[in-house]
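Why does this matter for the project? Reviewers at the last site visit asked to see concrete outputs rather than summary tables. In response, this paragraph embeds two records directly. Each consists of the residue sequence and, immediately after it, the corresponding structure tokens. Nothing has been edited or filtered.
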Amino acid sequence: MATPPVRQWGVTPPISTVLPTPDELAANDDLVSELKLQNNFESPTETEQRKIALQLIQRVTVEFVKVVSRKKGLSPAAVEAAGGKIFTYGSYRLGVYGPGSDIDTLIVGPKHVIIDDFFSDFPPVLERMAPQGAIEKMTPVPDAYVPIIKLELSGISIDLIFARLIVPSVPLNLDLKNNDYLRGLDEREVRSLNGTRVTDEILELVPQQKTFRLALRAIKLWAQRRAIYSNIVGFPGGVAWAMLVARVCQLYPQATGSVIVGKFFRIMNKWAWPQPVLLKPIEDGPLQMKVWNPKIYHGDRFHLMPIITPAYPSMCATHNVSMSTKTVILRELQRGGDIVDKIFLKQNTWNDLFARHSFFTADYKYYLSITASSRTKEAEAVWSGLVESKIRHLVGALDRKSTIAVSHPFPKGFERVHIVNSEEETEAVKNGSTKYQDKGQKTETTDEINDAAHQAAADSQIEKRDVAETVENKANGENRIIYTTTYYIGLELKPLEPGQSRSLDISTDAQIFKSTCTSWPGYQPGINDLAITHVRNFDLPEDVFQPGETRPQRPKKKIIKKPGAGQKRSIESLDPPVELVVRHLRCTSATEARSFKATKLLDDFAVENAVREDVYQLVDAVWQKREELDLDPESQRLLNNKQGFLKNGLTLSLGPDRVAFKEIQVRLRKAQNEFQRSITEEGGGICFTLDELQGVPEDVLSDLHRRTESFVSPFSKSISFLR
């Protein structure tokens, strides 16, 4: 009897279809036990509470659609038939949620219900239908990249997004798999729908969902513990890790979850990047939508670790990955593979795989500290989210430095509250000092707070919000509260030849980064600020370390003999000296104003000297006798300044004409001052896109400096305008 053909899952045949061995089954049981010890599963009671919350959201959705339908004059029959349905996606839909996880929820309505209706009518309907006290918090963010309502309902965190379909009604048996449902939708609506469509496709494309879920739980926990879980700063996010695990499941359709985890590390570490990871062939749909294709789209060719979503229109879920974050990911994959190999040899345990990262304790000597600060808590939530979304651009710029091997962004920001009572203390806090931190306020990381406004701004699409200074800041008299969020980038420098030293100047890159952030429409001078400082590992704040972790120590001074002298001198270490230059990064508006005022005074003084009649008469008298005088070179140089007096009109008689020369000098000086000030505020240059430079001769382009994906004209800064 012929053996039935083995089903092919994915774009290639399986590597192995061998059934699990007893040892592999035992390792699988051990993995489940360890995940339970790690509190990765929630209790049945909590799961039941989630189901109850979603049932309420479904009832509210149907009523919300009815309310909008009545407002828009639909007939009673059409109102009753309009329907409305919720779909979950993300970790809840995949079945890998744990205690405290959000439920990502999509609300789908018919064609006459639009996004504005969702924000105006859904909240009041929910408040009316929810049990008293069930709604603990509700935050609408309509101007986010994907408009969202963040909700705390009976202890359950729910993220609600909305999309409409171009259909008259949405029945409960609706399936979103049909691509035709995307017809007539704008890009934002397609993004909202595709979260659910991608999640459903992933589940359909894995051989064993139970195995997939166990392996994905392990990989997600590992990625979070190793600090490589954040799409915003350049690491894979939840959907990307899910697709990688799903691909390994396709290659080993009969394997246990424990085996999938081990194969995951080895396969993805040896993957021929940038060859894309696909769960199925890329689909060309019937609609005019952009589908990931490096043969057509120039930008797609630069994706370093492309992981492609299976639902039409396919997109790259890892377009933010940089050279450095790719290096960090591959190192962690190697480490994970080595540990799992030893687990199967009974030399390690699963607990070793989930050990906390050593980003602050051992990985780097040098760090960049990026501190976003604001006068109010509300303003800081938005501002820090925007800054976080731009960090990957700074990482990309650092990757191009010849002396930097790795620039590793930490995926979480540290939110602190400070109390200051002087401008000096304010400046210290804005530059990253924790000396004035409010000891009564615990430092929290951005993922712990899960603020809606922060996340919306991190999408870098939120519009400007007017955030007034709070009463709290005014009521403290002399005291002022400053809110800060600090992000860290670990720097690994390339090795040098013996005796070689280096100077790493990142001031221009940092200034461009600051200019990018402050050009955002939501930036508010006087409310928001941004500073970048260099920090050694032994100077890191105490709150970045967990209890029990060993902090790096300042190197002990070593005494060595000076060659040939028999004398001793002290040095901190025998490592090659490193000078990290981080200048021009920030100054206060007050300092900047003083700088411009000083420049104006100097300019006025220079103009007055240039038109002094008495000085001109002395110079002219010597000029007339210059042939008779034996002048030294310096005196001759000063005498040649007569030409400057002539240009200033001093040969003219006193009157309107001579006054006009002085006025021209003043206007020229002012124009130069304003021009230099504008260039400084633009980060030391003017940026042009490649499209804007089309047709510019090559010899001109060769004089421009390449910065990221644009060119910068090389205007220099005056020292009086250092930022």
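We now turn to the second protein, recorded in exactly the same manner.
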Amino acid sequence: MKVAVNEFVRRQVKGSGKTYSKIMSFEAIAEHAQIQMGNGHFSKGYRDGVRIVHCNNSIISEFYCPIIKLNENSVLVSKLVRRRREEDFYIQT
């Protein structure tokens, strides 16, 4: 299996609100993902064709993820959205 970097992934940079690597190139991430998937270190994503690749603990600190901790004082706002016209709506919080 060959892992390639598409335009959807290339927009995952600092300031995008998405997970990104602080120093790794997209090509290095793709190479790591290819190895990890070959070793079965992935899970099913939110739709067909999407996989969540489990990165090796040795490089976990190379990534920034915008996930935050919530507590009883956190205020959440949700809306019904879809990414593409042909996809079903989902709740985005």
